Amino acid sequence: MDNKKGPTATVEPMEASPAAVEEAVFKTERRLNQAVWTIVGGVALPCIPIIVITVILLYFIFHHQVHLSQGYEELQPLSSEAHQNVTDWISLIRHQGGSAAYYVKFNPSTITTIASWTSRIIPYLSSSVMALVGFFAARHLVLCSKHGDEHGSSLPTPEQLTLLISVLGGSGFGPLRDTILHRYKRKEKLIAPLPAAFSALFIITFLGLIIPFIDSWFGIATKAEVVTQLVEKPNNTSSYGRGLSSSRWPNGPRDNGTSNNYNPTDAWWPSDLYNINGHGAIVTGLIDAQRIIYGTSNTTQIMNYTDAAGVEHLYLADPKQSALEDFRTSTIAISAQCVPMTQLCYFNFDAAQQGHLFNCTHAFSGDLRSAGLNPAASPNDSLDSAPSNVGLAFAANPQLTEAGGEIWMSHIASSYGIPDDLTDGFTYPEIYPTNPLHYGAWATGFPAGDASGFTTFTGDTGIYYDTSLGGIWVFNCSMTVWEVNYTWVNGAVQKFNTTLASKDLSAMLSAPLAWSPYTYGISNSIISAASRAAYTGDNSRKIARTFAREISRAMLALSAFAMDPVPNDLEQDRIAGLSLARIPLVPLYLLIATKAIYVIAVIVLAIGAYCFTHPAETEVVKAQLSVKGLAAAHFNQPGLLQQNVVKQIQDRLDAANSNDKEKSESEPKEEDISFESKGLRHAATAPVQGSAVPPPANAKVGMLPTADGGWEFVLLANGVWNSIKPIVKNLVIQDANTGGMGDVGQVIKAWH
After folding, report:
1. Tell me, what's the pLDDT at 94?
2. Among 68, 103, 248, 602, which one is least packed by beta carbons within 10 Å?
């Protein structure tokens, strides 16, 4: 039996270096790590400086911020309305950054310097951001190379690849300009991913311009200002208001109380009048009242406020109130007006027969030389005492036709020291509990002088000139008494809320004037009012307006004794003279917002690059999307793609087959050559050798798998792949000529 030899197998150990094995096993992991570090660097390099600078800026602002409006809401200054038209508004925005601002106790130059750090580094950050965009571009090229058609319609042309590499370099306006010129000069549609990369670079460049612009605006608008800080006072310590003394007259103005020790008829004797055992009526505190009128009192002052309707109010205030303290309190105020009625009262009958008499109505008539009304007066009457130059009397209605106030009867007048020769024919003073109050006033000799001084009053029916008496006028007046609650802010009234006072309070204030003929010193106040009015006005209406104001001042001053200080409702101090940095809110937050958009966009790009671009695979392609990377990939492995691609694959198949097989049997079949894409399968079956000949007009650039599992750019023309080394060479030389490759570029430039 023949001993047949069975098939034998020879196993030959394959020696492989540990480094080669490690390289084969961990190549993908290493590429992923490299891609991750690239992504992390693309995020960290632009984002960390911007975030750190912004945090430092906000720290200095909020750590040193001074809150100017810590006072009460009711005592806050009203917003300014000075910037209503468009021109003023634009000027306000441009130079001050708007009206809203933070105030910081810090050097404004330091703050603007910190804010400007971002503007200094932002131009150098675009390349890092575009490196993230490179992952998306690389992924798109890989997918189009895998799944594209044999004509490469979804692949870029060599020119567009050049533009893409330039755009991904993130060098500012140059790539944007070149891309636009290429699009419109050649009328060639831009193939993805060039449009997306162009848009990304445009947005980054725009943000790189707008951030320094806003930063410059922020620097212009941030400046030092001297301001005032408001600080609440939890315990009110001042009493700047005025009100009727409740301790002296707990039952109001009609309460005789401690103000009247002698009142045999228990009649109403107003609380601001006082009688001393039959010696007539006087005003307590008359000396201080005169000081109040002339503004020299240290207890009370009279101030004025004009409302939106143009009505002036005089009110009692405290001399100690100032612009250094804001408060809210209550007080008493008066508004008044007078109109001339001289023609009605004095010119309605012959002056020669009228003499010194005036006759306005049946209830309002008398002698111009007397301080009180006297309807029974005749031209032949003579006065035993020196004549008065001015008089004043109240009535029940605006027309001065009704009398009927509360009267001190004539049978008790002698009890209070009124001489009998002054009571005959006189109408006793009446106190009218009305609000508003109505009164008439008359005067002679205001102004005084000869006829030459009255030329300014020619044709003025409100004033009459008499050769012996001088200027003669009669006014019809009214005044209203108010209870007021007001706020005092920054040395001026801010809110002035009025409530009509009671009729009794109004009557009480009028009592000294009503009793002026029999009250020591009151007539001097009326004469002073007439004099100030006559010599500050050049027509009867101005004289009447000033007289009404001065009589109101006298009326308030004469009632001051009956008033007590009223504690303030609210108080706050004003700390003036603080020099602070004004940080406008509009440019500040606009600057922060643009930085936030920049940072968020970079973070989103990084997340997208890691999650959706298969970074382990696309890192190799992304690295070639630059002149240096492309040169390194193609010149470090010369002639790699000049070999027959089919033969490369066949050689690898041969290495896996038995050594006994013939080389001719290793000729690969078409179905054995399997790329991941059907489009690439057809293109790889008929490769041509690369050359320096310019690519055909229909040439496209795609990606082809390399022997080590990576990807490399190739040229697709007429259905076949070709090396793009000539294209790379042109790009390298061009970049070297512009100094973009450093010392290596200088060597390349010298050889060409």
Report:
1. 84
2. 248
